[in-house]
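Structure tokens please, single chain.
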Amino acid sequence: MSERLQQLITEFTLDHVRADILSAVYECVSISSAPAERLPGGASKFGGVADLPAETAYPSFNGTPLSFIGQINLTEVSALRLKHNPLPMSGMLSFFYYNSDEVSVYGEPEHRDGWRVLYTDDTSGMSAQGAASYPERRMLFKKAEKLEFLYFEQDEDDQKFEKLMDQLDNRLDHQLLGIPMSIQGEVFEETAEHIDGKPVLLFQVDTDNKLDMMWGDMGMLYYVIGARALASKRFEKTWFSMQCY
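Here you go.
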């Protein structure tokens, strides 16, 4: 992104805020999907049936099993060799959400059991559990750079920056790490009072027709954990937000 961004800063006459813009570039993992083609157990995937240890109880909310969103094999993420990767180098993260017309789970404390992130250190003894809520598709990971949306003192600079952003591949999509692509309020600000330490984006899940996933009106799911909880692998402390248009 760097060379292209430098050119756009010049093109939109934003040289006086060049340093601010360049400092807002962040590294993340962009996630897409592909047909499953008989995925082996323990592979990273969206949908299908969760791979869990036999001793792990399938998560539920108000007596109803949560929908399995996907699982990330952290060995695949480690292989990307990110500049900064605070996640464990191996193991599995499994993501769940209560997607129901009866109760809307947006991340309120009273719905705390409406989302869940499970971490499995040893993936050798995992087996399929639960039922599929969404079609199974393989996850594809790509190291990416994106630009955080900024606001400036001058309205003219804001307008120019919006045009600059339109020229970049800065789309909303499935994402791991980096900064959430918020739709309404800032996700990290929303979750700040519920987490311990600097926020880390564990998973951003976009509305996706290929996965039959629709969150409200073309919305997104965000799973956020505090850095201190992450360092001690306390993934049960993950907080959540759902935003839509």
